[in-house]
User: Fold these one by one.
Assistant:
Number 1:
Amino acid sequence: MVRKAPRKPRLRSVSHGSLPKRTAHTYVLPAGDPLEGLVLDAASVMPLKKVFADGGRGVWLYQGNCLEVMDALSQRFPEGVADMVFADPPYFLSNGGITCHAGRIVKVDKGAWDRSRGPELNHEFNRAWLERCQRILKPNGTIWVSGTHHVIFSVGFAMQQLGMKILNDIAWEKPNPPPNLSCRYFTHATETIIWAAKGEKAKHVFNYELMREIAGNRQMKSVWRILPPENGEKAFGKHPTQKPVAIVERCILASTRPGDLVLDPFLGGGTTAVAALHAGRKCVGIELEEEYLRMSKSRIVAEGKQVRATLF
Ligand SMILES: C[S@@+](CC[C@H](N)C(=O)[O-])C[C@H]1O[C@@H](n2cnc3c(N)ncnc32)[C@H](O)[C@@H]1O
């Protein structure tokens, strides 16, 4: 099989991720929606609803509970179906604390989905969704999980319990974090992203040369200094924990091949789908909340228009 040479990245000096310029992609057309006609268990709490499909670009969005959807997916594809998972799960930090937003003191309340149920139940939940991600990954597939200290240690422990192979822990350094109002702690300026393979024997993909090129012809370090989402990324609404496209795009470019399938069980405002489009990969996104799916859909449609405008 002839493997395509990686696209030449456009090297930018800004700290927004120095990612390749977006161009038209010549990747293999997607074979189809892996969730098409999927029937959930009769005892499912939430019906599965397809809210967006673009077979041409390979993007499918579903409203549903990711635990139930991944159960059904692993029954359909017992050998695995996704080449990569990007998961930004609930952080369990909306518990009455305060933070600083746009110069004002505000309560930390990102939504009911982000409330903590105590360390044991939170860990049980983390293990439950990670176990399902592991099942739906192809044998050499990898998973990236982002989180703050509220959740990331439980995620790392669950990965070890499940026999995943931890490959790296990336420190996402935020150049301009909100100040710490209490003046009793250091300013929280990083989030962690754990990168792990499905199992110890997995032969994971790492596009070393491309990462090296993006890092300015040096080995890329595990500290990524990347700005928060740009204003343009919030043009269709804001998700309270929206990730910058640059981060997810880098994860995808590092660990998948053109045309591969990326699955996000906690899609939120659609960042992973947009990043997958930029990188020329397929994407299945699952999200509980209709409001966030609407936002995701608008972002994906707008991406299509932008690419068409560059092409013609
Ligand atoms: C941390 S946010 C993800 C933000 C996303 N990375 C972005 O950039 O917009 C987690 C999301 O998971 C969703 N969620 C929580 N539990 C879920 C579940 N069981 N199934 C599917 N989605 C869920 C929440 O509604 C929330 O939008």
Number 2:
Amino acid sequence: MRTSTLLFGMVVVLAVIAVCGAGAGVLASQARSVWDGVYTVEQAQRGAVLYVEACAECHGPDLSGGEMSPGLAGGEFAWNWNGLSVGDLFERLRVSMPQGVPGSVNRQDKADILAYMFEMNGFPAGESELANRTALLAGIAFAAEPLQN
Ligand code: HEC
């Protein structure tokens, strides 16, 4: 192999490493999680009312769960969803909850209920509401503990 070809190859490899490194840095700095204030206090208040109507019967008035239904707040719940996205969690309750009649609660009301669940899990409120679109929620990480930067 000629030296120039070898040098060119090395330059290409270094450039790829540089670009990938920069990309990873951008991703890390943009990563949002449930600890970044992804819902509002008002939204959680609306969600609390809706939760009592549609979910409390099975998941308990304080979200601690019932005979057959898992808790929706606390360590076990949080670690169950740790590492997944808020989009995953939203899809879960969008397609399957309330159990048996998932169509009885609309998309916006489910986003509000999720905001209430976040409040009850100790995640901080913020300036903007939790969206009711899975694609947007997919960009928010569910983390049982605050992510270290
Ligand atoms: C009729 C009882 C019932 C009602 C009402 C109900 N759920 Fe459930 N829910 C369950 C059961 C049972 C499970 C576990 C089995 C399953 O996933 O189907 C579950 C599972 C879940 C899970 C998954 C929990 C986990 O950690 O994997 C979520 C989230 C959830 N429910 C949210 C809701 C929300 C929000 C509402 C109200 C809109 C609701 N549920 C209403 C019975 C119910």
